[in-house]
Design a protein that fits this description.
The chain is of the alpha+beta class. It contains 9 helices and 15 strands. The chain is about 30% helix and about 20% strand.
Length: about 325
């Protein structure tokens, strides 16, 4: 296999795509990947995206190729929100929600309404194309294009104040678990990859956006009532105590997103938003445990915890009891 600017690196399956990305980077950083029957031109793979760590655009693309079996199902059929960092994570970023009228062959773009086009996840070509555009994390909507008004889960976003430690965030996540248990609900925690923790509550089919948001609001309110010193549900940032954790239920609106599961984050260390088992919420937990270098090995050892959590949907009967 030979690569150079304008030439191609072929993928025959298995780990060969990772090798092809590496070879293109070694040979200057520009080339063409062949992914199944599709081709994708990639450029500037030698560009450093994470200056402190020296990780390049190629490193990021290899990471996503390595974990594609786990990450692609998490975004399948979901509109994607991109935060692009064309000059690396310390450069000026910008959000991209609207997709162009067309993209490379194999990149899925769907119309959600008049003048509203979105990248839609699920294919490796689409995922790697977003990285080619300079995205670091790729964040999916909570609903799918086939049923855009009925999310598959609702999410509680634990967002620490400036003086709140990550150990405080972990403590509040355990408080959320207590309330979920009391309400008869199953939840799935994951690190945000930055300073917070996200807790997802899988919903039964055909749950409305309004009901999803109400469930999250009920959980957040109960946590705050039980633990008013450690938590806040105050929407105004200025009004929140700096050492408290904001229990945010307002991300559950069509079009809003949080960092996608298994997504890399634009922070020093290249942390990854990683699903957890509840017993991992200890004082020793830190977001720095999970990076683009360590996550593939964790997946190999622990398996796909996200798929396991999402397979346990909460029942319509429990939700009706809570929201009636």
């Amino acid at each position: 296999m030979t690569t150079s600017k304008g030439k191609s690196a072929k993928k025959s399956g298995g780990g060969s795509l990772v090798e092809a990305i590496q070879e293109i980077e070694n040979e200057g950083g520009n080339g063409t990947l062949h992914i199944g029957s599709e081709s994708l031109d990639v450029t500037n793979l030698k560009k450093v995206f994470f200056p402190r760590d020296g990780y390049t655009k190629g490193d990021l693309m290899r990471f996503y190729a390595q974990i594609s079996d786990a990450i692609l199902p998490t975004m399948a059929d979901r509109p994607l929100v991109l935060k692009r960092f064309p000059n690396g994570i310390h450069g000026k970023p910008f959000y991209q929600q609207n997709a162009p009228a067309d993209g490379p062959e194999g990149v899925r773009i769907e119309s959600l309404g008049e003048d509203e086009r979105r990248f839609v996840g699920g294919s490796l070509v689409t995922l790697l194309y977003t990285i080619q555009l300079g995205a670091v994390s790729v964040d999916p909507w909570m609903a799918r294009v086939q049923s855009i008004e009925t999310p598959d889960y609702t999410v509680i976003d634990l967002d620490p104040g400036d003086k709140a430690t990550f150990q405080r965030v972990v403590q509040v996540a355990r408080f959320v678990k207590e309330e979920l248990d009391a309400m008869g609900l199953h939840g799935a925690p994951k690190t945000s990859g930055a300073s917070g923790i996200h807790i997802y509550v899988p919903l039964p089919a055909k749950t409305s956006e309004e009901s999803a948001r109400l469930v999250a609001q009920l959980i957040a309110t109960r946590v705050n009532q039980a633990h008013p010193k450690e938590t806040t549900i105050e929407r105004s940032v200025k009004a929140r105590p700096a050492d408290s954790v904001y229990v945010d239920y307002l991300q559950n609106i069509i079009g809003k997103t949080v960092a996608g599961v298994y997504a890399a984050r634009a922070v020093d260390g290249a942390h990854v938003s990683t699903p957890l088992d509840w017993d991992e919420l200890t004082d020793e937990l830190t977001p720095a445990l999970f990076t683009i270098k360590t996550l593939p090995e964790r997946l190999a050892k622990r398996g796909d915890l996200w798929a396991e959590h999402m397979a346990r949907r909460n029942t319509a009967a429990v939700l009706r009891k809570l929201t009636s």
